[in-house]
Automatic annotation (TrEMBL):
Domain DUF4397: 46-154, 163-234
Taxonomic superkingdom: Bacteria
Xref: Pfam families: DUF4397 (PF14344)
PROSITE patterns registered for this protein in UniProt: PROKAR_LIPOPROTEIN (PS51257)
The name this protein goes by in its record: DUF4397 domain-containing protein
InterPro entries xrefs: DUF4397
Length: 245
């Protein structure tokens, strides 16, 4: 009888010990990003192809294609509701005959109900292909105001090495904004603005203009540049604006 009691006690202690060891492992595995329900997480992601020589690309997450159609230069995929958020996040060429993995994006710290953008820039031929990763959220602007920020994804050539200035109705909003720099959001009164981008080293020269840009009450916007200053072909310098909210 004593032996049976000892056996039961030994089994109970063994199970209890296993439970203590296994419990942290269980919590650790549940902490993996891939185990977050993507539908519940409501994470939105967009890709901007601003590299003039990589041709159209697609976004893959956990080896599954997320973009519905290839993203060509210098366009955006628009925000995509991800159906998986496990790693890796990859930018691949859209060439079906020879799919190439061009970039791996560090997306290990995503938050629920948040929008993100990846600006692909640089040159594949010159081995400078890279990306700029942004979190597209901010506090709500004050009533009657919107917010803008500036992303410089234009390669630093043709007199832009010292950076770029962005003016809104001839008032400087951002200055000496160097390559790959992402500004904070700044507030503007809601209304129409002529946005001009100039080289910091030569502020009398206008590289790109976004005339009569409507900044709406409560909205968030990103103004970004791409291409090469001094070029007049398809790789020419340009600027566009995104609505983040």
């Amino acid at each position: 009888m004593g032996k049976n009691n000892n056996s039961r006690l030994l089994v109970t202690l063994s199970l209890f010990t296993f439970g203590l060891i296994g419990l942290p492992l269980l919590f650790t595995s549940c902490g993996k990003q891939g185990n977050i329900n993507p539908v519940e997480a409501k994470i939105e992601y967009q890709v901007l192809n601003l590299s003039y020589d990589i041709l159209p690309v697609n976004l893959y997450v956990d080896f599954l294609k997320q973009t519905t159609s290839p993203v060509s230069y210098p366009n955006s995929s628009g925000y995509i509701s991800l159906n998986t958020i496990d790693t890796p996040f990859q930018i691949r060429s859209a060439n079906i005959a020879s799919v190439t993995n061009l970039l791996v994006i560090d997306s290990t710290k995503l938050s629920r109900r948040t929008k993100y953008s990846v600006f692909i820039t640089g040159s594949r031929e010159n081995n400078t292909l890279t990306y700029i990763f942004t979190v597209d959220s901010s506090t709500v602007p004050r009533v009657g105001r919107g917010k803008i920020r500036f992303v410089n994804a234009a390669l630093p050539v043709g007199g832009t090495e010292r950076g770029l200035d962005l003016t809104a109705n001839d008032t400087v909003a951002f200055s000496q904004h160097t390559y790959k720099k992402v500004s904070d959001y700044v507030e503007l009164s809601a209304g129409l603005y002529n946005l001009r981008i100039r080289p910091s080293a030569k502020p009398s020269e206008t590289l790109a203009e976004l005339p009569r840009t409507n900044i709406e009450d409560g909205k968030l916007y990103t103004i970004y540049t791409y291409g090469l200053a001094g070029r007049i072909d398809t790789a020419a310098f340009g600027a566009k604006i995104l609505t983040n909210r």
